[in-house]
Specification:
alpha+beta, Endonuclease - Pi-scei, Chain A, domain 1, 10-stranded mixed beta sheet, two-stranded antiparallel ribbon, 8 helices, 12 strands, 24% strand
């Protein structure tokens, strides 16, 4: 399914304003400018090739559009057709092969971890791509995610596949409920600031996904991130889509999206 803006309590004009505000292409729902950040975000290179799920042709990540089907892996790590749900542009920077050092990819076994520096270093345009599957596949067979070390925190450099699947499903639900602006760098005050709040968000999101009785902590972490790491305009948009942010039991909370209203 396409990334939707239909969950908001506003009209089409407000939705269009949102796209313009966060530098989103209204035809592709791709968001972002090259960000002036002190801590460059971790991503994948725009010239990374992915396989179209329809004709098996190789297509560069930078040319992907939301709604396209590409090859990936489902929650059981089986080959699957996956929909591009969101795509963000994060400027130019160093990558090793096709990924930044601390971008999370699927490694052999039951682990999702940092890409590392074993591949050749180069400069490239950088993107983050969220698909409907837990992992997309590049043309070399690497399973890529939309996440990086800044989301998990310094104390985490790998997570189990089973935990990652829960995190992916939670993020996918939030994006489908509110739109792609979370993948725009202009949504955040800076990468340094957001990195202070995402580790708590990750830990509590995982707990909430596993046990809805623990979602109070996730709601608090989400409210803290929104209040402190988002720009003023992004803060306003977050409350349009989640008007009850901070109130775990309310339908307009982020927890209700993760827990299915439980």
């Amino acid at each position: 399914a396409m990334v939707g803006l239909h969950g908001a309590r506003d009209n089409g004009g407000q939705c269009e304003r949102t796209l313009n505000l966060f530098n989103c292409d209204s035809s592709t729902l791709t968001c972002g400018n090259s960000p002036p950040v002190s801590n460059p975000p971790s991503c994948m290179s725009g010239d990374t090739g992915v396989l179209s799920a329809t004709d098996k042709a190789v297509k560069a990540v930078e040319n992907l559009k939301v709604g396209e089907e590409i090859a990936g892996l489902d929650e059981h790590r089986r080959p699957s057709s996956c929909t591009v749900e969101a795509k963000g542009y994060f400027g130019r920077g160093l990558v090793y092969g096709n990924y930044t050092q601390d971008h999370y990819v699927l490694n052999e076994g039951d682990v999702v971890s940092e890409h590392g520096t074993s591949d050749k270093q180069r400069e490239a345009e950088k993107y983050a791509v969220l698909t409907s599957c837990p992992a997309g596949l590049d043309e070399s067979g690497v399973g890529f995610t939309a996440l990086a070390q800044v989301f998990f925190g310094d104390g985490t450099n790998a997570i189990s596949w089973s935990d990652y699947v829960l995190i992916h499903a939670s993020i996918l639900s939030l994006v489908r409920a509110s739109g792609p602006f979370w993948f725009s760098p202009s949504t955040y005050v800076s990468m340094d600031v957001i990195g202070k709040y995402t580790p708590a968000l990750y830990e509590t999101m995982l707990d909430c996904a596993k046990d809805s009785s623990t979602c109070d902590r996730f709601e608090e972490a989400a409210a803290s991130l929104v209040s402190n790491a988002l720009t003023k305009d992004a803060l306003e948009m977050a409350y349009i889509y989640f008007p009850d942010l901070g109130n775990t039991v309310a339908l307009g909370s982020v927890s209700s999206v993760i827990s299915g209203g439980k």
